[in-house]
Design a protein that fits this description.
- α2 packs across α10 (246-264) and α2 (45-52) packs across α11.
- The chain has 14 helices and 10 strands.
- Helices cover 42% and strands 17% of the residues.
- The protein has helices at 2-21, 45-52, 55-58, 71-80, 90-97, 152-163, 180-189, 201-208, 239-244, 246-264, 269-279, 285-295, 305-317, 327-330, and strands at residues 31-38, 61-68, 85-89, 103-110, 116-120, 143-146, 173-176, 194-197, 212-217, 233-238.
- It is α/β, with parallel strands linked by helices.
- The protein starts with a helix and ends in an 11-residue tail after the last helix.
- β6, α6 (152-163) and β7 (173-176) form a beta-alpha-beta unit.
């Protein structure tokens, strides 16, 4: 018994000496990054959830969401270097390349095109039963709102109008109305008769306030073929930043992938609603639930080759780019996921 006690004491002393000699283990500091987003818009819901549920911090990122009023402003923030990342319309990556500005997408936040073209209830739509593109011709002479000049809403609306046989610079008046609150106010007051909207604008206008009706809902498969496989919003950074910071890029992708897994699991729906209530204050909770039930399927991380081809086709037809870029020019294949179970 005495010998066994001695052996135990010797073992404990050896362990103490080993621990004393070992280097001190310290928590690794998180990498600070800024992410350009819009405020209170469901196309940016993935980064909201990544922040709200702690997925950024879990992957070593001290992420700060920086809010802007339009997609054009978020793109400018990334190009200028005032933010390291942006949750941008993937179209912007394609568009700015022709200006010599090299951005790349590393993971999708939202894959479906999120738009509904809406008009005030009193606007007559004699071609409504004929659907797209005929019904868009009923908008001739109207004032139509978008978030900002050069934003995704702007050139998507121009594409829809042009494909319907109208001139977007002559047959309609396109007005930049800013973010969600100012755009809703413009539609409610009648400063604009229509709007190309993404959630929560269309649901608020149609179901919440009852002041609008849909013309075409791209989310339901209405409208042009090119929008049926898309990569609408992605996490984007400058090429030189991605080259210099590969580990940060991988952490960002991992955080977004975990966010998508969380959103895809039906067991997390109630927690998802709580996140939405935090980032969309003042919206009826029942309306938030309805929006989430209809929208969650669109939050997927993979940017497909066909999606990039469709983006290029849309921008080229709208006269916004001269050449549709190759997939590798838009997507950084070192980081972008190719499948999502």
């Amino acid at each position: 018994m005495r010998h066994r006690r001695v052996r135990v004491i010797v073992s404990l002393l050896a362990l103490a000496l080993l621990l004393a000699a070992a280097p001190e283990i310290t928590a690794q500091p998180r990498t600070p990054v800024k992410i350009a987003v819009l405020r209170a818009a469901f196309v940016y819901f993935t980064p909201y959830v990544a922040e709200g549920k702690g997925f950024f911090s879990q992957h070593g990122l001290d992420a700060q969401l920086i809010y802007f009023r339009s997609g054009a402003e978020t793109t400018t923030a990334v190009v200028s270097g005032s933010t390291e990342f942006g949750a941008l319309a993937t179209e912007h990556v394609t568009q700015v390349r022709e200006q010599g500005l090299r951005l790349k997408a590393i993971v999708a936040n939202l894959t479906d095109s999120p738009f509904t073209l809406i008009v005030r209830k009193e606007v007559e739509l004699p071609n409504a039963a004929r659907g797209y593109p005929h019904v868009v011709r009923d908008l001739k002479g109207l004032k139509l709102g978008v978030t900002g000049r050069g934003a995704s809403t702007d050139f998507t609306l121009r594409f829809l109008v042009k494909e319907a046989g109208l001139d977007p610079d002559k047959d309609v008046t396109i007005i930049a109305t800013g973010g969600v609150s100012t755009s809703m106010a413009a539609l409610q007051k009648g400063d604009i008769q229509g709007y190309l909207g993404f959630e929560p604008i269309q649901s608020q206008a149609i179901h919440g306030l009852g002041i609008a009706k849909p013309v075409i809902d791209i989310r339901k498969g209405e409208g042009p073929r090119v929008f049926q496989e898309y990569a609408y919003n992605s996490m984007v950074a400058k090429e030189e930043y991605l080259d210099a910071n590969p580990e940060t890029a991988r952490r960002m992708v991992a955080a977004v992938l975990d966010t998508h897994r969380f959103l895809a699991d039906p067991k997390n729906f109630e927690e998802t609603v709580k996140v939405a209530e935090k980032y969309f204050e003042g919206i009826n909770p029942a309306l938030l639930r309805q929006i989430l039930q209809e929208s969650l399927k669109a939050y997927r991380p993979v940017i497909t080759r066909q999606a990039v081809a469709n983006i290029g086709e849309m921008l080229r037809f709208a006269g916004l780019v001269k050449r549709a870029p190759a997939y590798e020019e838009v997507v950084d294949t070192r980081y972008a996921p190719t499948r999502f179970p």
